[in-house]
Amino acid sequence: MDLPVEKLRLTSLAHGGGCGCKLAPSVLQDLLSEMPQAGPYAPLLVGTDTADDAAVWDLDGKTSVIATTDFFMPMVDDPATFGRIAATNAISDIYAMGGTPIFALAIVGMPIDKMDPADIRQILAGGAAICAEAGIPVAGGHSIDCPEPVYGLAVIGTCPTAQVRRNSAARPGDRVILTKGIGIGIYSAAIKKQALPQDAYAEMVASTTLLNRIGAELGKDDAVHAMTDVTGFGILGHGLEMARGSGHTVRLDHGALPFLSQAERLAGQGFVTGASHRNWKSYGHEVILPDIFPDWRRHLLTDPQTSGGLLIVVDASSAQRLAEQIRMAGYPRTAVIGTVEQGPARIVVEV
Asked: How many CA atoms, within 13 angstroms, populate the side-chain half-sphere of residue 120?
């Protein structure tokens, strides 16, 4: 009698997962260094110059179009959940610019000879479900036969031009807010080794499928000066992009950072991703850590986030009001985590 064939784990088909698949920041900078500039296109309000979340094109001085794309390999084994996480992550870039998404295009690359077509349909259905939650259609897309499973979206959004929020407009004296817990990469490393408890898995899925739609509301508030979302480069990497873009120092209070409930324990046990090491190698020279700071704590700060929270820079007088507004909107881990001050473009972490 033939024995039943064990179904392949989705994560076993990929060499990495989630935003941990991103190229290291230093590699990306090198690849883009000789790319031609976007050119003298006056309506192009946001391009590649400040490593922002999406491109922004001013149509008429009143309304702007926002365009972005994001895709990656699976970090979970359930196909529908993978689709939901990837779609949430892709749409986030529109919200991080202060915009509202209007439609998406699917990006699909699947190893057809290795995957059950029913699983591929579930991936697409999961992505479509999140798009429906965001109030947008999947209006088309493109697919290829690919050695590893890849899924994501290209997303188009709009925004009143005056409400566009860049990652480069932080001002000295501002406060820094983060809206989701840190530790997604650490959790995904534990998944790879089948060591993540079920309650932590549920926590991870809840966080990574929570749309950052609050960004569209924050764009309407004059007290919000800058926004980005925290993804593959970790809190240090995306905070550093804000520091570089504005030309100021960002100081983070380690004690105020929100972490997923088991992130610190798992990091202490060695569950870290390769991307965490690559991140530190890329930008560690621009970060000042406390004198006594164990490596496992540093890995929490370089941990690649998939569908992470918004990193928001706001006027100091409005920080507590906005943090409470965001928490009430459904982001309970929201915390004021730092300040912006005059000084060189770098991150300073204090305990």
From this structure: 19
pLDDT digits (tens, 9 = 90+) for 88-111: 999 999 999 999 999 999 999 999
Tally of CA atoms within 13 A in the half-sphere of 114 that contains its CB: 15
State how far the Cα of 127 lies from the Cα of 55, in Å rounded to an integer. 22
- Catalytic residue, candidates 19, 21, 131, 159: 19
State how far the Cα of 185 lies from the Cα of 275, in Å rounded to an integer.
9
pTM of the model: 0.92
CA 98 to chain centre: 15
Dihedral of CA 25/338/89/224: which sign? Answer: negative
Contact 172, 1 (CB under 8 A): no
Alpha-carbon span 76 to 160, nearest angstrom: 37
**Per-residue pLDDT reduced to its tens digit, 23-61:** 667 666 676 666 666 567 889 999 888 888 899 999 999
Note if 21 is an active site residue. no
Q: Could you tell me if 211 and 133 are in contact, meaning their C-beta atoms sit under 8 angstroms apart?
A: yes
